[in-house]
Amino acid sequence: xxxxxxxxxxxxxxxxxxxxxxxxxxxxxxxxxxxxxxxxxxxxxxxxxxxxxxxxxxxxxxxxxxxxxxxxxxxxxxxxxxxxxxxxxxxxxxxxxxxxxxxxxxxxxxxxxxxxxxxxxxxxxxxxxxxxxxxxxxxxxxxxxxxxxxxxxxxxxxxxxxxxxxxxxxxxxxxxxxxxxxxxxxxxxxxxxxxxxxxxxxxxxxxxxxxx
Length: 212
Fold this sequence. Notes:
The protein is 27% helix and 29% strand. By secondary structure, it is an alpha/beta fold. It has one domain: 3-Layer(aba) Sandwich (Rossmann fold), CATH 3.40.50.150. Helix 1 (44-52) runs parallel beside helix 2 and helix 4 packs parallel to helix 5 (168-179).
């Protein structure tokens, strides 16, 4: 797994690429590199999540597994009075996310290197977004779900995207074990977006079937 995008310190040589794209009405200039997720271009799942994420202007947001930053930076552009924390275990990806924020004049972000929610465990978020690292294994993805639930405020929202052919519906059911209720809120291009809201303490027990 030395060249895998979920590797903390990739050993693969560099091959920097320049991307230009429009997301939610804003133009972005982004750099990618080998051994980071979707290094050749923004993947369809991330685009679907970005186009359907409900960002409020003052939200405190977490991009969990941020890669080179596309989801978190798009969210930061929408949350002009809020703040976005981007986290990735891959130091190369985090460096790219930090540089891409500067290249696009986005200042309401903090980029962290670390696994899951560990670097931001002392914060409470309004919104957690992730295109989870499916190739890292089901255990890693479920740890993302558990971490998202832990750092969300009551009433906070969790959105994730997954490829239908890689078990998206099953992941929706797994997410329901943490959140109690998960709904499919968008689909297209072979991907599905699921949304959950963290229930208040008095809510019904966990584990109801997801709407998937």
